[in-house]
Design a protein that fits this description.
This protein is an alpha/beta fold. Helices cover 49% and strands 14% of the residues. It has 3 domains: 4-123, Helix Hairpins; 135-257, Rossmann fold, CATH 3.40.50.720; 285-359, Alpha-Beta Plaits, CATH 3.30.70. The longest helix is centred in the first third of the chain and has 37 residues, at 87-123. The protein is elongated, with a radius of gyration of 31 Å.
């Protein structure tokens, strides 16, 4: 059972507050606040000494302790007015009460200022996501917009953070926005890249220069979070090797994929609609990569296909072993421990999505 305190500390909202508190704290003049605190303590101590000397029944060491306690409680607004009886004591009590009002006003102003700063920075994309096990979308284009809609409708829901250098959140409600540079390690850290599930990098336009920035973004991600899975949309097929050298896990050349799908659809009508339905979150069945139960080890392809269909209403497309997908295994194929499956199904049901590891 998870520790409630750890769950509370890990809450994204509290982590964001902590980020802003640390940021504001780094901008403050600590010497000023140290001097102010020293002055407050000194004023209260002097007031306690004065009351101890002015009140006849309190001129003892224990009386000084009581007077100091009374001075502190008077400053915070809960002191006992009957504690002093001399004119001097009354005067000190009024000064302490007035001083306390000033302190409360200063504290209230500081809290209000922090809240306003928090809201302004969050609205401008200058905050920190605070999520864990989320997806970071680096860059923005029409493909990224469609991806956000797809993720919102997926059964395996996860938080999404968009990193892009614009004034307003391009993804709309439900997606956390960080304004910044996709190649900046500081901005990537504000996205929580080290604790992310995956990062998806999009080129800003269809130019070769956009691919170069995407490569730099992958390198920045790898320098901070080498275990995070990186998926990249590439413009130019000639840049795929560069992305691989940058250690991107998956590279998708959308123009090549679209042209090949169009070619197959021209030869075999209806394929484009079928593929679109499979990979989308709309009506009908969808594509999943799932972990397989331990008792499936040793099954043949036909037995595995029958079990998936009978127990999960899922149609087997491929089996993946050691990072290689086998779409049509040989007749003597047997499932091994660690193998996973790519299936088409209406939903995950009792299956669970595969927890992919980097590389």
């Amino acid at each position: 059972m998870p520790n409630p305190l750890r769950v509370l500390i890990a809450a994204p909202f509290l982590r964001r507050i902590g980020f802003h508190a640390k940021r504001i704290g780094g901008q403050m003049d600590r010497h000023f606040f140290t001097s102010l605190l020293t002055a407050v303590i000194g004023f209260v101590a002097v007031a306690a000494i004065a009351v101890t000397l002015l009140e006849d029944d309190k001129r003892t060491f224990a009386g000084f302790g009581s007077s100091f306690y009374w001075s502190v409680t008077t400053v915070i607004g809960s002191g006992d007015a009957s504690y002093v009886t001399s004119p001097g004591g009354y005067l000190i009590g009024w000064l302490l009460a007035f001083f306390g009002v000033a302190i409360v006003a200063a504290m209230t102003g500081a809290v209000v200022g922090f809240v306003i700063d928090y809201l302004l920075k969050e609205g401008q994309g200058m905050g920190a996501a605070g999520y864990t096990d989320h997806i970071v979308v680096c860059g923005w284009n029409e493909t990224a917009r469609d991806l956000i809609e797809e993720l919102k409708g997926d059964e395996f829901t996860t938080e999404v953070v968009v990193l892009h250098d614009v004034e307003r959140n391009p993804a709309g409600d439900g997606v956390y926005f960080v304004r910044g540079d996709i190649t900046s390690t500081a901005d990537l850290e504000r996205c929580g890249i080290a604790e992310a599930h995956a990062a998806i990098v999009f080129p800003a336009d269809r130019s070769n220069e956009a691919d170069m920035r995407s490569i730099l973004a992958v390198m920045a991600i790898e320098s901070i979070a080498p275990k995070v899975r990186t998926v990249v949309e590439a413009n130019n097929p000639m840049h795929v090797d560069h992305f691989r050298r940058a250690d991107a896990d998956e590279i998708l050349v959308t123009s090549r994929l679209a042209s090949r799908l169009l070619a197959r659809s021209a030869l075999y009508p209806g394929l484009s609609e079928l593929v679109t339905d499979i990979v989308s979150g709309g009506e009908g069945s969808e594509l999943y990569r799932v972990a397989l139960p331990a008792d499936y080890v040793g099954l043949s392809v036909d037995e595995l296909s029958a079990k998936l269909r009978g127990e999960h209403r899922a149609t087997l497309l491929a089996v993946t072993r050691d990072g290689h997908s086998m779409t049509n295994p040989a007749a003597d194929f047997r499932l091994q421990a660690g193998d996973d499956a790519v299936v088409v199904a209406e939903g995950l049901g009792t299956l669970r999505p595969l927890e992919l590891q980097h590389g």
